Each structure stands twice: as structure tokens, then as C-alpha cells.
Amino acid sequence: MATLRELAKEDLFLSSGHRMCAGCVAPVVVRMMSMAARGRNVVVGNATGCLEVATTIYPYTAWKCSWIHNAFENAAATISGVEAAYKALKRKGKVEDDYKFIAFGGDGGTYDIGLQSLSGAMERGHDIVYVCYDNGAYMNTGIQRSGATPKFADTTTSPAGKVVPGKTQWRKDLTAIMVAHNIPYAAQVAPSHWRDFVTKAEKAIDVDGPAFINALAPCPRGWRYDTADGIEMCRLAVDTCIWPLYEVENGVWKLTYKPKEKRPVADFLKAQGRFRHLTDDMIQEFQEQVDRDWEALLKRCGEA
Predict the structure, then answer these.
(1) 3-class DSSP state of 223
(2) Region for residue 136 given its phi and psi (left: phi exceeds 0; alpha: psi -120 to 50; beta: otherwise)
(3) Is pLDDT of 223 > 90?
(4) To which CATH superfamily is domain 4-300 assigned?
């Protein structure tokens, strides 16, 4: 594979002229997917959210490919409909060029509002790649909690106070839910580990059938970290095993990165303002849950 510097010089389908917040990792996720799709004709579907709003402020656009925005809940339905139409036109000889179809949605539009649409597209077997840029809340509309929000996180709809210490539920394991659809390929990625990311994205694009990529995308406003530390937040999430990197290819689970030294979850939690209210007992509870999830993943991957 080319170096990151070389890949960044490719003609990527998202330009640098967007208006995402300083320190947001979501556009990094999109550009890494673009690196994997280099040299291909691509149609992008985009759920309502930060990415859609900030890259297409009328009359401007940061996209250099065919791009479709529909409602919050139906990006997967829209892109699967385009893919079905493309196949029909291809059979009739009305389209000669080859195309790939990629949808992007935040965790609000993927874990929650768009889950039924995504599940249907995966179950029907459309040849699409759905990418979730997971920033752990509905950041675009005011930092409300989502199914991806970690336990104890302080959001505007799960505020930390004297009685309730932030969100009271553990986050949803969406990647495993997608694997349960028996799709050919699913993976978790983080931009801090770019080679792992781009390799998995290439696999997802090349696979015949539906593929799902869950990408960690820290948000400086919602997570409350310094804008320069977005990639470091990803690295901490991976090294604490809060966000493990793995892939599931035709039902076979494979761990793609194992920290040489598993860092304590406190390193990740204490780096963010949304967790500044945590007590030692809460951090310990969080650590124990991460340890259980990590051991379960190791067994699934044959690494125990």
C-alpha cells in the first residue's frame, strides 16, 4: 500500500473545502474511505447530520462525486435504491461504466433513527458499503444522547447531576448487530490506525454484496477535548480496548490490532470533559465492562 502522504495526494471525493468544526474527525473518516475508493466511480448517499449540513451549505458543496441527501432515517434505503436502479440500467445496456455505492451516516442516523433502513438494506443484500461515523451522540442538533453514547457520558439529554450521573445505559454494539445479518463483511476502524482503516475499506468496497464499516469519529464539542487531539482520542479508545479494531469476513471474526499494553480506561475518560464528573467507582465499573467485552471479543476471534 502507498504511504498516507501519497494517498492524500490522490483525487479524493471529499475536498478540503468543507465547513466541519475544527478538530472533527468525521471528514477524516470520509477522506480515508475516499483513499480506498481511489480511481473508481462512486455514488455517495448521506444521512442528515453534521457531515451533510457542513459539506453542502447552499450553494456550495465539498463533494466531487455523485452525492445524494435524503432524510435522517433513510440513507441506506436511498443508496440501495440507486444501486438497484444501476443494476437494472446495466442489464439493459444503458450504463457502461462501473460504480460503487457508499452511504455515510452518524451514529444518530445509524444506531437509532436509521436502523430499520440499514437492517433492510443489509438483509436484502444490496452491493453497498454503509459507513457509520460514530461520534457518540446527536452532535448536529445539540449533543443529545444516542444508542452509541457511552455510559456515564454527560449530554444535553443525559445531563450529569447529583442524582443521575450522565447516561445510565451501556452503548449498543452495532457492529455485532450488522454481523448478525450474515453480510459478507463488517469491520470496526479508527483513523488513528490509517493503514488498518484503508485496508478494511478496500475490502468493503471490493466485496460482492453489503458491507458495513463502523468508524470512530471524535467530536470536540460533544466530547470536550482540545481541537488538536482528535486522532489522539481515537488512539486512546483503541489502546484502552474501548474501541477494538476487528473485522468479520464471511462470518469469521479476526482481531486486526492488539495493544502491546492495554491502557486503563481512565486514560480515555479523563481526557474528555463529558466524563469529568466520574468517580473512582464509576471508572472501575466502566473498566470492568470494557474488560468483559474485550475478553468476549478475544474468544470470538480465537485469541483467548
Answers:
(1) helix
(2) left
(3) yes
(4) Thiamin diphosphate (ThDP)-binding fold, Pyr/PP domains (3.40.50.970)
